[in-house]
Amino acid sequence: MRITRRNMEAGRPLRMLTRLREMFCLAAGDMPRPACRPMSWVASPGISLCGIVVLLALQTSPACAQLTGHGGPVRAIATSRDGNSLLSGSFDTAAIRWSLKTESADQVLRFHSDAVNAVAFLKDGRMATAGADARIGIWTPGRPQPDRIFEGHRGPIVALAESPDGTRLASASWDHTVRVWSLADGTAQVLEGHAQNVNGVAFAPNGRSLISVGYDRELRIWPMSGGTPKLVVLPAPLNAVTVAPDGDVITGGADGKVRFLTPEGEQTGEVEAGVTPIIALAISPDATLIAAAAIRGVVAVIDRKTRSIARTLADAGSPVWSVAFLIDNATLLTGGGDGKIRRWNVRTGEPIGASLQAAPRDPLAAFAGDHGAEVFRACIACHTLSDKEPQRAGPTLAGLYGRRIATLPGYRFSDALKGMDIVWTPETVSRLFEVGPNAYTPGTKMPEQRIGSAEDRRALTDFLARATLQ
């Protein structure tokens, strides 16, 4: 986390003398366990004393039922089988194991060199984390480093699924493959066939097949005994998948629709959950409800039996990147673009616990009514307009025009980008969104997205010219 002048001038009480000892224990891995305290002070990798001071400056009054420790969007969350623990992964490269009883962080897992996109509690009590660095870490709670590291993917890993018998772990990657790892020895079976990014993966309840979904609009049902997978092509790119205990398959698409299929891949219905892409799905433990999170911060709670929206949860102003149910079937957790994990009552649609922290400032408030700013709003989860703001998942866009690609100091770019001869101008930015990042900048970590309207692209590039001047 960067130190910003805005944070240092906020004028909030630091309370340093009473908290510094806790901070140093935290950075060393000895986690304090307050009874009910927002954890906005969780240290990020390599944090300095000054960074601790800034984190303390952001601390305000207690806010039960909100877990606030990540320095970037919460990309993945998973709950333990006993309902006592939560595991979260973030764009800030860290994973955190939380106690849901005390609402405190029990362990910060620092291993990945890039965003942690997927997390899972395993049947044997261990944990799995996977990230944009194409690595999987298998952890024993309390140990500072992974017991085992799985490597082999050539692109970001974005989803994990454990087999019902607990012997295998499946991973979905943007290298267009699925891998099925033996948790005993780390050997992997590679499943190839997707033409684009694989975004989701889930085992059938009997473990005999594996379902994967991708940006190529394909849902594939892979027989684990080998052989040709069943291929289903759906109308939109697919971002997430989950499977009910009876084998029914549920997938979420870029068109905002949730689709239901039989275990054999026959489509049985769909629900329009929103107008923006669905990026995360969760099924309640009793399999009666589906939570579908959209990029604009709206979560649709779908009654699985009636195939209708029971209620909608709105986390205004913050994209929701991840969702998970608690074992009571009535509580939903959401991971936000603001780094917070929230609890919701799915029966009423209301948040659980009131936040006493100040609402985050809208970084685009000064550009109200600017069409280019509205086009850019989809980008603010990953990019800042000023280098005075804390870094997010992507590099800051401050001083963008005239800068050669992959040369911004302090940001870890992929090797593929470092070799490209692109200088950012209104024309090159427009081309990026005309053809898409995968085509224009192969090897990028940027999610695939296009802006089809030339007018919208021009509004965006004009806005960036005004907003990113240093």
UniProtKB/TrEMBL annotation:
User: What InterPro entries does the database record attribute to this sequence?
Assistant: Cyt_c-like_dom, Cyt_c-like_dom_sf, Cyt_c_1A/1B, WD40/YVTN_repeat-like_dom_sf, WD40_PAC1, WD40_repeat_dom_sf, WD40_rpt
Gene3D superfamilies per UniProt: Cytochrome c-like domain, YVTN repeat-like/Quinoprotein amine dehydrogenase
**Domain Cytochrome c: residue ranges:** 367-468
Q: Where are the WD repeats?
A: 67-108, 109-139, 150-191, 191-232, 313-354
Q: Which PROSITE patterns match?
A: CYTC, WD_REPEATS_2, WD_REPEATS_REGION
GO MF terms listed in the record are: electron transfer activity; heme binding; metal ion binding
UniProt keywords (A-Z) are: Electron transport, Heme, Iron, Metal-binding, Repeat, Transport, WD repeat
Q: Name one Pfam family in it.
A: WD40
> Origin, by domain of life?
Bacteria
Name of this protein: Cytochrome c2
Taxonomy of origin reads: Bacteria, Pseudomonadati, Pseudomonadota, Alphaproteobacteria, Hyphomicrobiales
The UniProt gene name for this protein comes to cycA_1
